[in-house]
Amino acid sequence: MAGRRARPCLIKVKRMSTLSQGAFTAWQLAAGEAMRTRQSQIEAEMLFIGICKLGTWLRTMKQRGKIVPNGLQDLRGLFAEAETVETALQTFAIPPISLYKAVRTALGQGTHVQVKKQVVHRSQACKMAFQRGEKLAAASPAGEVHCLHLLTALLDPPGPVLPRVVQLFDVDIAALHARLVTITTVLDTRHGNREAQGEGVSHIIYVGT
Questions:
Q1: Which domain holds residue 177?
Q2: How far apart are CA 189 and CA 21, in angstroms?
Q3: DSSP state of 17
């Protein structure tokens, strides 16, 4: 219908100035996950889902013409960050789609009735994960909290759900956390070497073992 506005595809949340494009978008996806599964808050596991889902969501939006990588907004960092997350998971042969769907199944469906335009807030556990991610970023040359900071923070400590789900893929949660720490350190160090170029760490793709 002419003149009709398209509905936004993401939940509007207040952006932290230190978040990378990928981390901010993953937070929005986590908010959408809370609404989809009828939860009253954004749980830490939903943030995990949002991070793992980022690459799939971007590819879907690109196919639908909702986002244009070479358009007015520079989205190279966003796509690179999503690819880095997927590459990190694939070092353990964990398919990102299967992983986030398994976490969703483990969490189950809630009973919360969402009120129109109601803001979905983070749970205390989710806020603490962000705080741990911020500490990781502050201790590095990154200058921003990116997805791997948050993913690493979510696994230390991981809570009861994520270890069970990761074990379904024959992966130990401690081993996954250790690998993420290594990859994050590599990324942040590379960013420190490229800081003079003015690029965020989300522009750097991890390629390693």
A1: 21-203
A2: 19
A3: T
Would residue 1 count as lying in a domain? no
Q: Which of 179, 181, 175 is nearest to 153 (CA)?
A: 181
- pTM for the model stands at 0.83
Element counts in the chain: helices (H) and strands (E): 8, 0
Specify the CATH number for the domain of residue 36. 1.10.1780.10
Higher pLDDT, 193 or 134: 134
What distance in Å separates the CA atoms of residue 139 and residue 119, rounded to the nearest whole number?
31
Q: Is the peptide bond before 157 cis (omega within 30 degrees of 0)?
A: yes
In the chain, the number of structural domains is 1
Residue type, 111: T
pLDDT tens-digit profile of 54-93?
A: 999 999 998 888 886 666 677 888 999 999 999 999 999 9
Contacts 24+ apart (CB under 8 A), 12-15: 13/119, 13/120
If phi over 0 gives left and psi between -120 and 50 gives alpha, with beta otherwise, what is residue 198?
left
List, for residues 33-61, the tens digit of each pLDDT value: 999 998 999 999 999 999 999 999 999 99
